[in-house]
Backbone:
């Protein structure tokens, strides 16, 4: 099996945004750690700087993610080889943390092949937390009681964290599904006239804790939150690509001393649309298409939307609209045409699509 990790993605693994103290993601991470240390003194241990390259076993198997689960596929996950991936979530480190601590926090960059828009990027950051107890320690007798206790504690903790970070914001809990927690929940907040999913969480399944070397009596909770999603709201950063820009007009706006300050947008450059249509081959994964687009256009690609789809004589045609926009300058028509030309050259070769 060959790796499906492009050089662009490998480059991102070297950036270490969370270790730059004045980067908004790092400022936010620090604030969240402080919240836990202040409200639960001497409880949570933080360990950062885990390698994003992790065994498939830790990212999927031990978390009870089934063999055939779509998140394991080559079109969703970056593989170094059959047994090693770029972590798709920070939950991959829960086993190590649970082997040492009863309560922990950690944060890191995670990677997923995904759609393209202002809220999605193939690399983003998660902050993970976990906490476990023994039934006897709390005078509880059944595992159900433990789970109920954990979920209540989890919801209260995360709601007060969200209130502290966002101030007064409309929030709602939804039921979710994760193979490693039961029950599972997600928290959404109101953002730009829409609901924004800011975290996933739940009570660890007993088998996951057993996989981590814990005993039958141990229960607890875990959560994983998307730092970019929180930071977009807190710092009023309108586009997820901005976190990766090295433009000084962005980077100099934030500092650990200033804390949560609002981003002042520098001029927004015009968008340029280009459409591309093709006959879809028998095996086609949309994320593969997005990846080719990103490899060609990089951060100039703001968004990709499917705008048309029809079937004729048993063949299906898709039309996608690609929005090109730079964060830092005006793009020329020639430059976009050049990208579009490269894309038209690569798509038939890499995805066996027939251009229209
Ligand atoms: C997870 O990754 C679970 N590991 C979370 C978890 C941990 C559940 C522990 C239970 C126990 P999910 O795929 O929903 O779940 O991602 C968690 C959060 O990451 C989301 O709520 C969202 O805030 C953020 N997120 C997910 N995908 C993206 C993306 N492509 N770009 C930016 N943020 C994202
Ligand atoms: Mg989710």
Residues:
């Amino acid at each position: 099996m060959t790796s499906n990790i492009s050089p662009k993605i490998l480059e991102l693994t070297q950036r270490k945004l969370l270790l730059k103290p004045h980067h908004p993601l790092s400022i936010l991470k620090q604030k969240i750690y402080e919240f836990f240390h202040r409200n639960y003194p001497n409880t949570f241990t933080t360990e950062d700087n885990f390698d994003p390259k992790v065994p498939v076993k830790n990212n999927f198997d031990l978390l009870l993610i089934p063999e055939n689960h779509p998140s394991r596929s080559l079109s969703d996950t970056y593989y170094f080889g059959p047994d090693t991936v770029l972590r798709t979530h920070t939950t991959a480190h829960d086993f190590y943390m649970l082997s040492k601590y009863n309560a922990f926090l950690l944060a890191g960059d995670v990677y997923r092949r995904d759609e393209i828009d202002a809220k999605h990027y193939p690399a983003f950051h998660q902050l993970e937390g976990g906490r476990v107890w023994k039934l006897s320690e709390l005078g509880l007798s059944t595992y159900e009681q433990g789970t109920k206790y954990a979920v209540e504690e989890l919801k209260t903790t995360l709601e007060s964290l969200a209130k502290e970070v966002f101030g007064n914001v409309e929030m709602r809990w939804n039921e979710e599904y994760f193979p490693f927690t039961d029950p599972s929940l997600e928290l959404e907040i109101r953002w730009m006239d829409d609901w924004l999913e800011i975290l996933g969480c739940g009570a660890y399944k007993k088998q996951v804790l057993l996989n981590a070397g814990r005993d039958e009596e141990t229960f607890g909770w875990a959560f994983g939150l998307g730092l970019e999603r929180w930071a977009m709201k807190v710092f009023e950063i309108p586009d997820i690509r901005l976190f990766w820009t090295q433009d000084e007009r962005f980077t100099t706006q934030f500092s650990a001393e200033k804390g949560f300050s609002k981003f002042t947008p520098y001029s927004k450059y015009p968008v340029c649309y280009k459409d591309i249509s093709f006959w879809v081959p028998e095996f086609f994964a949309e994320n593969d298409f997005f990846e080719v687009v990103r490899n060609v256009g990089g951060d100039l690609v703001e968004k990709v939307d499917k705008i048309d789809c029809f079937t004729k004589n048993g063949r299906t045609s898709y039309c996608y609209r690609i929005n090109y926009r730079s964060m830092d300058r005006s793009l020329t028509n020639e430059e976009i045409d050049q990208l579009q030309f490269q894309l038209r050259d690569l798509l038939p070769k890499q995805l066996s699509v027939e251009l229209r």
Remarks:
- The mean pLDDT is 95.
- The pocket of adenosine-5'-[phenylalaninyl-phosphate] (ligand 1) is lined by residues 89, 91, 112, 114, 120-121, 124, 126, 178, 181, 186, 197-202, 222-226, 228-229 (CB under 6 Å).
